[in-house]
Amino acid sequence: MKRFLQLHLLTFYPPSNLNRDDTGQPKSAIIGGASRLRQSSQSLKRAWRTSEIFQSKLEDHRGDRTQRLGAVIVDHLKGKGLAADKALEIAREIAGAFGKVKAETDKNPAYTEQLAFISREERAAALAYAEKRAAGEKAAESSDLADLLLRKIDTAADIAMFGRMLADSPDFNREAAVQVAHAFTTHQVTVDDDYYTASDDLKKKEEDAGAGFIGETGFGSGVYYLYINIDRALLVKNLGGDKDVARKAVEALVEAAATVGPRGMSARFASFARTHFIIAEAGNVAPRTLAAAFEAPVRGAQGHIAGSIKALETLRERFAKAYGEDTDCRTMDIAKGEGSLKDIVAFAVTGL
Questions:
Q1: Surface-to-core class of residue 233, CB atoms within 10 Å of its CB (0-12 exposed, 13-18 middle, 19+ buried)
Q2: Which residues face 330 on adjacent strands?
Q3: What is the pTM for the complete model shown?
Q4: What is the tens place of the pLDDT at every residue in 255-291?
Q5: At how many degrees (to 10) do helices 69-79 and 120-134 cross?
């Protein structure tokens, strides 16, 4: 099995605001001295993890990234007739195995301060332990509770892929088998403002002629480059050697990366896109991004898609020649009508 699978994707998005910053504007970055639009890796992974593709392909092999396990336990125990104060006491005890629990005076005293990635198996173990505690079983020592509830081997493919960090239980951290870069436009983009008004349908003619609401939204358009590296050997290790789940995970990831993106303001912009161009590489040499192909903004006379493909292929060929890289490769090029997503997915799981 070749250890690394690297994916390079080029995707065009029309005017949209896929991933907003704290001011509501599309996220951006300065690259090569030019302003670019950007999608954070967090927003991409969230979109993929919650997609129908992941739900259908991975079914029960998915986890939940949440602060709310304690609240789930409270509801579970109250549903079985336990008093609210006792349910909360047990929930706080268990939630502490997954992270620092909020203060008792907080409006959500069963929540953890941080988001914790929790597998279905760990959730079931937490609920089973909660029931035993409600039945009068003695509480485990806090140092033993993590060993009782947490797992070092994943049954959740998304935890195995994207990793997790538990500050108070580092033995149960997971090194991510999949690394996802921030996607950015291959060319310079200026964020535009959409100044808009909304009419009040019930407003009468004798009233003023003004709008019912006035607002402003930033947006931009461009061709995004996205780089993903999958350490397939680590993925199998994280999954305890379960290659069947590993294959399904890679299939889901490749398919989602090509067809699913962040949903920011999608109702306003209908910003649903499919990837135009993919290079998939499999090999054992140390992975490397091809982002440098776009350090100088693409200025293709025939459009940014064609110019971006040319820059990407050129840099890949020059890297291969300079470093003697020997990787198997497959491409999908919508413009040329070459390759298919089915071919890329099949290549991605070859030997796995």
A1: middle
A2: 280
A3: 0.92
A4: 999 999 999 999 999 999 999 999 999 999 999 999 9
A5: 50
